[in-house]
Amino acid sequence: MPLLHAIILALVQAFTEFLPISSTAHLILFPWLLKWEEPGLAFDVALHAGTLVAVLLYFFRDWLKLALCGLGVNYPEGAGAEEVATHRRMFWYMVAGTIPAAIIGKLFHHQIEDSLRKPLVIGISLVGVALLMWWADAKARLARDLNQSNMGDAVTIGVAQAMALLPGVSRSGSTITAGLFRGLTREGATRFSFLLSAPIIAGAVLNELPMILKLHRAGGLEVPFSTLAAAVLTAGIAGYFVIAFFLRYLQTRTLKLFIVYRLVFGIVILVWWFHQTGPAR
Asked: For residue 159, which of 141, 143, 136, 182 has the smallest C-alpha distance?
């Protein structure tokens, strides 16, 4: 794969991973539309490693507080008992929210990869989730921020994250929508979504890493290590700024722009699919 193609796809991953428009849909269709070669497993893992770096760097202080308090350390020094208790509670909410996607991903990852990465599935998912986002955004009570979340929020958003394994759903789209249905503010739902993304992305990267290293030792990587490193760096830097932009955007705006984009994109894919397959199918 040429370096320029890798950089472009890394930028596509950075934008579509954190904006609620489905990174999987874009990364499947983008190379096809431009008639580029398939990037391969190693490149896919590199892109996810880049977005993992972005979310870990942006929320580093948050995760440090959550993890230390969750494991019984009073942090930061001088923090009151109520603040420590909130951080400890949030840590275990993140643990609970990660479990559904971890189980579904472990059991059905290969079936999903082999059977559902199709334009029809992607188009239906884009449109279906767009309609759910519109409903949630229109009816949102916006009553609670992140610190007021509870175990019910964690489980609901965690199940929504598991559903995002379906191509076209969008992990951020499904989890933010679930958070809005639970009464969280747009920013609160988005912060919960982004914090929750770190463990599941890390798990996906670590799960595939041994295979990547084995391919590297055998000389079977489709993409040079230097290109993978460039993809990680690009996705990480761009992803960091996308997170910052999106959180600021939702402080004063709704999800309407992304809902319209999903609807248009999904309808275009469905029209294209029907045109390609013809009336017989």
From this structure: 182
Report, as an integer, the average pLDDT of 90-112.
90
* pTM value > 0.85: yes
- pLDDT at position 281, please? 47
By CB atoms closer than 10 A (0-12, 13-18, 19+), residue 171 is buried
* Token duo for residue 157: 């958003």
Of 42, 166, 44, nearest to 104 (Cα)?
Answer: 166
Whether the pLDDT of residue 224 is over 70: the answer is yes
Confidence of residue 216 (pLDDT cuts 50, 70, 90): low
Query: Tokens representing 256?
Result: 């309407």
Using only C-alpha atoms, the chain has a radius of gyration, in whole angstroms, of 19
Which among 164, 185, 187 is positioned nearest to 175, based on CA atoms? 164
Residue 183 CA to residue 145 CA, distance in Å, equals 9
Directed axis angle between helix 41-58 and helix 3-18, to 10°?
A: 50
CA distances from 132 to 113, 169, 228, 236 (A): 24, 11, 36, 29
